Amino acid sequence: MSNYIIEAINLKKVYKSKKVEYVALRGISLKVKKGEFIVIAGPSGSGKTTLLDLLGLLDSPTEGRIIINNRDVTNFDEDKRAIFRRKYIGFVFQSYNLITYLTVLENVELALAAAGVPVWRRREKAEEILSMIPGMLELKNKKPNELSGGQQQRVAIARALVNDPKILLADEPTANLDSKTGEAIVELIKKLNEQRGVTVVMATHDPDMMKYADRIIYIRDGLIEKEVIQNE
């Protein structure tokens, strides 16, 4: 059994249309240990989001292999991908992706509903995860439009973690937030990484958010440029 929870081997991704071919990833290989906090850093258009989409089974590589939790998931069909994502992977996006007509609690419960968790247990687990995030349990009956951007992102983090995933993928989670709120969000992700042992892979181009990572992987033009190990 490998000590790595994520192994990406020579990942390439080419997007094709009738007139144009765009190479997003040109051959990226990386390994992530269980419990690590990794930052994928690079300018806009470097391939950060494409890489996270592949690692999260939201898209398939044109070439290469992806192994998660010792399973080669590269050629999973859509049904298998969906089941695997629900079991192992939580997502946090820059745009929050909350359902506006549902309350905070209902938004967090949604992931559990998709996994077939009974109603009584959904409520219990959703409240349990919200109680771990300072100030969120008392907002459980609010709608997203009654919350600040930082509060909405905290709800998105709770929703991502309610299924007890082994991996949290965060794509520019502070992009729509002011610097103070953004820092609080990444501090929260780091705390959950340390306390719950969740492996975190976070894409960002914000240098202030990189200090929380165990390792920073810099990518540019679809290739790994360098790696920096910190917090040892």
Automatic annotation (TrEMBL):
SUPFAM superfamilies according to UniProt: P-loop containing nucleoside triphosphate hydrolases (SSF52540)
All residue ranges annotated as the ABC transporter domain in the record: 9-231
One GO CC term on file: membrane protein complex
UniProt-listed Pfam families: ABC_tran (PF00005)
Membership in a protein family: Belongs to the ABC transporter superfamily.
Classification via SMART domains: AAA (SM00382)
Alphabetical keyword list: ATP-binding, Nucleotide-binding, Transport
Protein name in the entry: Peptide ABC transporter ATP-binding protein
Gene3D superfamilies reported for this sequence: P-loop containing nucleotide triphosphate hydrolases
Lineage top rank: taxon: Archaea
